[in-house]
Amino acid sequence: MLLKNSFKKKFLLFLAAAADYWYENFSYTASRYPDLIKCKKETLYSTVSRLLSVGEIDRIIKNGKVYLRLTSKGFNKLKQDIPLFKFFKQKWDGYWRMVIFDIPENRKTLRASLRRKLISLGLGQWQKSVYITPFPLEEEINQFLKAKDLFGYCFCMKAKRLSRGDNCQIASIAFKLEELNKNYYQFIDEDIEQAEFLFKQGKLKSDQVQKLVNKYLELISKDPGLPTELLPNVWWGEKAKEEFKKFIFNLKINRK
Predict the structure, then answer these.
(1) How far apart are CA 12 and CA 47, in angstroms?
(2) Which of 92, 122, 127, 188 has the largest count of CB atoms under 10 Å?
């Protein structure tokens, strides 16, 4: 889980979430409030400085104010860890990539390694030993299979149809979209609403802000980033992103 890794990755994810990935900018001043992401001020300041020095974020000036922007280099860092960003806004070509394996018990360590790799690439578990993705990852998967000498135990195939089932139903099962969609809705209906109420009353505490930010970052770190064609008719992920951005924007405006 990314949130248990380095603070640097967590900050990049926060910047992406608060500023709509790397197409918009986020207030440099607001980003330096440690209650947005729980940490010591020194850690936050040094992280921002380090990310600026390696080119994973930019500092830009607009109307005399300083803003931060996630660069393509920083965005690529997120793509390595978060399925949501791997094929950002890429249209689906209509093909599924399916990985089927039958690895004997005496090679269970290798089997576990394969599962970790598939999950890290953003594949969903359709059946016990069958993982799928709508994205063009055949080359990367086959390179891993070759490196681990798994050909014969594992196969990667490309297919227009996987079964008689509806593609959206298949995606919902493999990627647990019903549960994720429910969590997105609860985030909007309960967490954001409660935080906004406390904010208006002047009773919102820093630990409550941290909890809200962490919950949203956890949600998007689990989001498979599927093409629109494979999502439920009502998908709360986009609304959750809008509400989160609006809340953070109002928070930073109040601090100016």
Answers:
(1) 10
(2) 122
